[in-house]
Amino acid sequence: MPSKSFDTPFLATPDTLEIRQAEHPFSFRNSKDEKLNALIVDAINRMGGVGDDAEENYRRALNSLTKRGPGVLDVIVAEYENLPEDSYLDRWSLVQLLVELRYPEAVNPLNRIIAARIPAEKLRKSHDMSTVAEEVMIRTTAVEGLVRLSADGVAEARDVLLKYAAHRTFSIRRACVQGLMQTGTDDDKRKLRRLLKERKEEALLKIKQVDVRSVPQPIGGRFVVPAQVKREAPPPDLRATKE
Amino acid sequence: MASCTYTVPDKAASGDNFYGAVICNQAYVDYFWNTYGFSGNKAYWDDGWGWDDCCNTSKPLARAFNGCYALTYSASDYLNDSYSAPILNWGRRYVRENIDDLRCFCGDGTAIARSKSGGLVEVYLGFFYSKDVPGRAETLIHESRHQGGKPHDANFPSGSVFGSGKSGADSSWDYEGAWMYGALYLWWYYAEGARTTSALRERARQRGNLVIDNAFATHPGFSI
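YS: structure for the whole thing
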């Protein structure tokens, strides 16, 4: 570990920041069922869980929501549509919820989400921030929902995947092609190959989903810190040892 | 000096609510502060950035600590940070060996973070408020790779969401640049991430695929 100076008082003036706390991101304008609203909020909260029981807690929240049946889709979709455009992560979390619930009735809303025009880039000067990238991730997650429904045998999902195999955005096309090749019928795959041939995009078929262990891995770091200098991290859950 | 204000968005799906409850422990605060380049930079993390309120996940420092927690503990065998292990294990080691100073600034809205000379990495508002928790770990690894001597060496490909033809891409996966390190970290997080949820792992997958599809001049030919 590099030797560091103490936190010397600063002579210049660094940046200052003022935080304003936002209201709850969801309005539930169209849903008066407070119990259902609370279940949706809980499931989304649990998406960001951490700890050895994070997944278990998330699954439990999803199960509670699933018991309410496909009627929950209308509420989730209404919330998605009511959120401000720049609430990218909140919008993504609602789409992820649609994906997890795996209701066949979700095909239409997922179709609408993918079909919606992607607004022009708002951060043109940036190389690492992109509003288009956020929009694309929302849509590729919606594609994942269709892929899961296609795997469940929902024919309409396969039709939508075929349609968006010609989407203007590369990542969306690529996700649809891979999803349909994995879950579609022989007939779907024939139609897909024909479409890609017409569009001269057969190269998309060569991009394979693979296991992370099979791709080239980087060769470590520049330095090796002597073992006696290395400081070990504390255990991951100190709450377990707290009084 | 710049002054900025920010309205804190939802903390749920980003992971900040739950990570925040965990990192609020002096042992973690000390470890992260002394390990990942915060030490010596108190002045930057003061004045609204959270130095005096480091458990408050509305503020940047706690959100940075959440990213550091994910970076440190997302491998089930996190104590093994050997470079022969997956990047999920040694990402934390690479960051601590390459970032000497981690400083926060308002920024001008055009970058999440920037790597400067001499081990200095600057992080801006977007790092805290538009990135989810594993995404912040990805950013620290990306910037560490620049410190490790790999600048971007190509322009973004045609149709890239990052801007066709703009500079800032890596030429290929084999270049082993910052985009490769970040994408590979997310890939391992998706495949093997511990102490997290399938939703955050799916988020990592989506972001990883976006990077693979859009940040290399030559597409690597595979996806997550």
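YS: worth flagging: Chain A has two domains: 26-101, 104-207.
IM: good catch. Also The radius of gyration of chain A is 23 Å.
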